[in-house]
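Predict structure. Chain length: 197.
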Amino acid sequence: MIIGPEILAMLQPKAQKYQQAAVAFERLTMEDVILALAHVEEEGPRLLGRVKYAQQEVFLTPLMNLYWPEAYDVAKRKKWRVDPDKLRTLAFFTLYEYIKPPRCKQCKGRGSMRQRLFAVKGKKTDPNDPLVCPRCKGSTYEPLRDADYARSLRMDESSWNKNNWRGKQREIRSVLDGWEIACLSEMFDFINPEDDA
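Prediction complete.
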């Protein structure tokens, strides 16, 4: 039987490429992941999982077509006065960053770097021990900056900040967070069923 935390660890964004996770999870194949995704009932979580965890990019357009109306519904519920084209662009970039976060340039997506100093904050360390990357803090990716989002919406950063676009981006990202939680939960339940005995 495969232990649950191993499965969830494999399905985290750090292990976007199956080969990176395969060393620790030899008994779980990509076919197992795809089969588990087929048992995710709701379409949004299933499509998100297929694109993010199974690298089936053919489902990116259907995912965006499903996500965009959800983002628009958030805007309507919150009574935002925004240009629908800007909201759609924001939704696209939010989805893209969610699925393929940009790799950290400082550590080249490794999450750690070799230490160049023998002392870090007053402690002597072995120069061969890896140092957690100060830029990405070990996550291996670097979120898009406000300036990147503002540029994508054809506005300056002061307009982005003044109109709280970062808050809007977080609100529509919460749809993806909910889908991912549902996807991982249903996949976990399929891969690691409870014994009824």
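Summary: Strands lie at 112-114, 119-120, 123-124, 130-132.
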